[in-house]
Amino acid sequence: MDGIHLLGEWFDCPAESPAMIQSGALRSLCLAATQGAGLTAVGDKFHQFAPQGVTGMVLLAESHLAIHTWPESGFVSVDVYVCNFSADNTPKAQHLFDALRRAFQPARVSEHTIRRGGLEPVRKAA
Amino acid sequence: MDGIHLLGEWFDCPAESPAMIQSGALRSLCLAATQGAGLTAVGDKFHQFAPQGVTGMVLLAESHLAIHTWPESGFVSVDVYVCNFSADNTPKAQHLFDALRRAFQPARVSEHTIRRGGLEPVRKAA
Predict the structure, then answer these.
(1) DSSP state, B17?
(2) Which of A6, A49, A106, B14 is 20 to 30 A from B106 in CA distance terms?
(3) What number of CA atoms fall less than 13 Å from residue A108's CA on the CB side?
(4) For residue A51, cis peptide bond before it (omega within 30 degrees of 0)
(5) Which of B44, B67, B109 is the best mutation test for A, with the most CBs of A within 10 A?
(6) What percentage of chain B reaches a pLDDT higher than 90?
(7) A1 shares contact with chain B (CB less than 8 Å)
(8) Cβ neighbourhood burial of B39 (10 Å; 0-12, 13-18, 19+)
């Protein structure tokens, strides 16, 4: 299944932003950004760590969004993965990714795009 | 946050295996494999598509597991991402990934390992 996976490591994000520290705020942000991108959430789960940090995922009809925050170091890790089953969802994935980046306001980023699930598997399974 | 991300595209998996087609079976497999690898689940969510296919995620204390099945094409996409906050969790991630591969029995695979969240961000944010 052809798809696109966007990976972000976002550094120096303001640590006090609600989405960095509260699971409810992060969930609201993720679901709103998913909807805003025209992607379809079919389930989600978020978890609040003690003393700090939030982790969460949104199951998409198109694949998934995953996000992890470390307020103590201003760091956010994000994955947006969409499959192109019935349409090219790449622009929607980028829209979602960009909306989240805007929300977290990182000063520095490391980002990669991976094309997944093409028709050319590289080796036979062991 | 330094971490390791294993990505798998597994082809020609037997389409009739319960974990390919039933969300409950996939959830049980994922939670057992997580525990077997010595990783810590803090939440999970699985979704059954109609007419077929399952998607799910396990939130880990160490980051996440995500998996999507397409029984109609014998295809499975999997992500295992662990951060090395207090220890090097790479062997545990590989253990989980290998256990899932054994369960799905792909004939062909495309797999990649990505090192994430290092100390060298590549550019300033726009």
Answers:
(1) S
(2) A6
(3) 12
(4) yes
(5) B109
(6) 87
(7) yes
(8) buried
Which residues in chain B are contacts of A125 at CB distance < 8 A? 10, 101, 105-109
DSSP 8-state symbol, A12: S
> Residue A67 corresponds to which amino acid?
I
Decide if A111 contacts A7 (C-beta within 8 A).
yes
- The β-bridge partners of A110 are A9
Q: What is the least distance, in Å, from the CA of B68 to any CA of chain A?
A: 7
Q: Burial letters for A7-34: b for 16+ Cβ neighbours within 10 Å, e otherwise?
A: bbbbbbbeeebebbbbbebbbebbbebb
With tokens 């598509």, the residue in question is B49
Report CA A113 to chain centroid distance, whole Å: 12
Q: Residues A73-114: pLDDT tens digits?
A: 999 999 999 998 778 999 999 999 999 999 999 999 999 999
Beta bridge partners of B108: A124, B11
Reported ipTM: 0.92
- Residues B19-34: tens digit of each pLDDT: 999 999 999 999 999 9
CATH number belonging to domain A3-116: 3.60.90.10
